[in-house]
TrEMBL record:
Positions that bind substrate: R66, E125
Protein's UniProt name: CoA ester lyase
Cofactor requirements of the protein: Mg(2+)
Superkingdom of source: Bacteria
Keyword Nucleotidyltransferase among record annotations: no
Range of residues in the leader sequence: none
Amino acid sequence: MNPALIFLYVPGDRPERFDKAAGSDTDAIVLDLEDAVPLAGKDSARIAVGEWLASPDRAGVPAWVRVNPGPELLDDLTMAVRAGADGVWLPKVDDAATLDRVDGLLTELEAEFGGPRTPVSPLIETGAGLCNAVSIAAGPRVAFVQIGEVDLAADLGVSPVVGNELLWARSQVVAASAAAKIRPPLAAASPDIEDVDGYEVETRQLIGLGFFGRACIHPRQIAPARAGMTPAESEVAAARDVLSAFDAAGGAAATDSAGRLIDEAVARIARRTLARQST
């Protein structure tokens, strides 16, 4: 089965949206207890998310929880493990020590509630986090890394002008993920939910930079995000041709039907192309 490509955010204080989001064309949902929920609503949102996650009738798409990084962290993690969340999104990770601390907390909670090992996706949202991207990507439980682009831009003092102001930051996180030998980073959501054509184009550009999949903050973004990451039929055909020739050669250097040299690196690119097909 292909890994989840589309992750749809759902505000944790809007339980009437949970089932609808899970039943959409997304591959996974992210129940957000952080930015989407005002301080006064944190407790009630945590209860609502926990009840929905623990319900035997909830839809089968993977459901992750974006927890709060502050005083609510332990309560959020406790709820996520007890209710059976598929993973945790951890905001504002500045260093690997944060991941070590969360790993310890999750280990204790999993022992207490008998749950499976909970994967974590850290969000890099500050200059400090960006400078520590390599150690963060290599941290315990990390499934994939993300950039909180709005927060990072604010911390760096970046003002969008031509659209590539965060190119260096994005490439840093892609390289850090490759060095850690984990899944490539998930492309960040965009606050613009009206420009669907632009969202598709931007998604395709981000995939070209080395990202894999995309977060969405509105169901309207799902279709253009999926279109932007789905390879064209010609790309799929070429990838299959590469892998067929490579496999026929027993994994040794070979040539495809067009006479181009194939080695393991070319085969890896082909496998990744096929992995971007719609799930």
